[in-house]
């Protein structure tokens, strides 16, 4: 099984932590970088190879990870000379990729079964499988529904339930056909194109532990929780 880790972003929202370090290498707990945790998890799940898409401060990632052998993985790299969006780096890799593979952001902490995501993707026959997580938003206002300047419904401080992308995907190489390597391609653009073509992605619903480390508050939460979550995130460590 093969995985592609997207690690080329500048981590602007996580500054000042990312001023000197790429976001996937910021430390969690006393011993581990986020990317190290992800690589350990992939190896434990049975993945044997991984491509890391690097850009901003990418040479630091390359120096840290090396060939991946310390985690039992064969790691190679793809370098973004300019930002290509979430899915754009995959276009330049297309000829090097197996027919089905895992794609994930390099800043995700979760106990998601990565191997099962890829298996379910293969079994579904879908062009794209999106790992999803339930979120609830509390709205602190009374919400009005209007029609032709008339109020037709009112809800006091409602809650909204919805599912979000976890930043982990099963993808088929054939899904990338028709896009031009070297041009940006966002996850949103790919999903909208598939929906327009009535080629619906598959949803992999997950309700375990998931934290997207995008902001300083998220990073502080990850560090605060890591001691109690370590055995969950790093099984056998």
Automatic annotation (TrEMBL):
- Name the domain of life: Bacteria
Q: Which InterPro entries match?
A: Mannose-1P_guanyltransferase, NTP_transferase_dom, Nucleotide-diphossugar_trans
The record, for SUPFAM superfamilies, names: Nucleotide-diphospho-sugar transferases
Nucleotidyl transferase domain segment(s): 3-227
One Pfam family matching this protein: NTP_transferase
Q: What is this protein called?
A: Sugar phosphate nucleotidyltransferase
Native organism is Streptomyces dubilierae
Q: What is the lineage of its organism?
A: Bacteria, Bacillati, Actinomycetota, Actinomycetes, Kitasatosporales
């Amino acid at each position: 099984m093969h995985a592609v880790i997207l690690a080329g972003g500048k981590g602007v929202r996580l500054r000042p932590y990312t001023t000197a370090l790429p976001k996937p290498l910021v430390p969690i707990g006393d011993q581990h970088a986020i990317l190290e945790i992800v690589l350990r998890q992939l190896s434990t799940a049975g993945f044997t190879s991984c491509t890391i898409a690097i850009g901003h401060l990418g040479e630091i990632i390359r120096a840290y990870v090396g060939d991946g052998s310390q985690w039992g993985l064969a790691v190679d790299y793809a370098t973004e000379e300019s930002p290509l969006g979430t899915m754009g780096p995959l276009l330049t890799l297309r000829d090097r990729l197996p027919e089905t593979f895992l794609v994930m952001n390099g800043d995700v902490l979760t106990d998601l079964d990565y191997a099962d995501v890829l298996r379910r993707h293969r079994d579904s026959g879908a062009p794209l499988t999106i790992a999803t997580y339930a979120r609830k938003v509390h709205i602190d206002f009374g919400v009005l529904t209007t029609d032709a300047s008339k109020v037709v419904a009112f809800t006091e401080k409602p809650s909204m339930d919805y599912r979000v992308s976890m930043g982990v995907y099963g993808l088929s190489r054939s899904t990338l056909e028709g896009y031009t390597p070297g041009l940006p391609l966002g996850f949103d653009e790919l999903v909208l194109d598939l929906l327009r073509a009535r080629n619906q992605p598959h949803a992999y619903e997950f309700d375990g532990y998931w934290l997207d480390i995008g902001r300083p508050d998220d990073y502080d939460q990850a560090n605060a929780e890591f001691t109690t979550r370590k055995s969950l995130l790093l099984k056998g460590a």
